[in-house]
Amino acid sequence: NRKVIIDTDPGLDDAVAILFGLASDRFKVLGLTTVAGNIGLARTTANAGGLLAAMGRSDIPVVAGASGPLRRKTIDAAEIHGNDGLGGVTLPAAAPLLSDDAVDWMAETLLSEPSGSIDILALGPLTNVAQLIETHPQAASRIGHLIVMGGAIVEKGNAGPTSEFNFAADPEATALVLASGVRTTLIPLDVTRRIRADRDYVEGLRGTVAGDTAAALLTAYVQDEKTSRPLHDPCVMVLALAPELFGVDSYRLSVNVSDDTDAGGLIQDEAGSPVSVAMRVDAAGVLALLAEGLR
Ligand code: BDR
Ligand code: CA
User: Fold this and answer.
1) Which residues form the Inosine/uridine-preferring nucleoside hydrolase domain (predicted)?
2) Strands, DSSP E only, in the chain?
3) What separation in Å is there between the alpha carbon of 152 and the centre of ligand 2?
4) Could you tell me the end-to-end alpha-carbon distance of the chain, in angstroms, rounded to an integer?
């Protein structure tokens, strides 16, 4: 099984991704590192701890990281995820924090295991990962695979005209990570918008603690019988386990780091960094694997 650190801002779809990761014996989750994103850092950290408690896995550390982007004002997505980040769903109280220095903790963890044996699954703004690369380059060079939910290539954005929320929340961190040379695969909105949960799908998850908790969270997210909503972050977990469900293309990308309304948008650019991007997906296969893992 794959050793992973999940860097996250739960967040309803983050929460489902984490539950899937904890429910699957094909992952060894070494820790959850938290970042401000969908909601502020105190909430994302408490939510991460609550998910571990719900799963009886409070032995896994939660380590808090950045409370805001490298160089900008913090934005959030409370209108989608609620003021608590979890759509009002209550989880058990979390165990006390191990420490609040996610970047140092990631570095120590990467240095204590064989090089290349740990993947980082990045489900939120890339602030922590960028700081890791900047301040602990040797540790960062030991990352096996960095899989990132973020960006939009052909699809329109969900934060600005072409910018996606995670990248818009910290454009400078995104630029630093993409230029770093760390082996990275992006999963942009082009793929995640095709992985959709509706009420029937959500009801079909029930039957285990992970499935019941995911169903409660997704009921808050899907809202009514007629809508379906994208499962962005769970795609990262699935790509780590079943890359054959995705088609990956190479792009050269740079990041809009201006102050305009599309900051964080990706620009296809010959002078940009080479990045692998998941652009095609077997949507039915991804949804089936997620449901199977959760229940
Ligand atoms: C991303 O932004 C967040 O709101 C979601 O959790 C996901 O990581 C989608 O753009
Ligand atoms: Ca997220």
Assistant:
1) 4-286
2) 2-8, 27-34, 62-64, 118-122, 143-149, 184-187, 196-197, 229-230, 246-255, 266-268, 273-281
3) 15
4) 19
Please give the single-letter amino acid code of residue 273. Answer: S
- Whether 136 is catalytic is no
**Is this structure's pTM higher than 0.90?**
yes
Tens-place pLDDT, residues 49-69: 999 999 999 999 999 999 999
ipTM above 0.90, yes or no: yes
- pLDDT tens for each residue of 193-252: 999 999 999 999 999 999 999 999 999 899 788 889 999 999 999 999 999 999 999 999
From 8, 14, 149, 266, mutation site for ligand 1 pocket: most ligand atoms within 8 A of C-beta? 149
Where does ligand 1 bind, in terms of residues with CB under 6 Å?
Answer: 11, 13-14, 38, 77, 123-124, 149, 158, 164-166, 232-233
Tell me the CA distances in angstroms from 3 to 94, 215, 271, one per residue in order.
23, 26, 34
Largest interatomic CA distance in the chain: 50
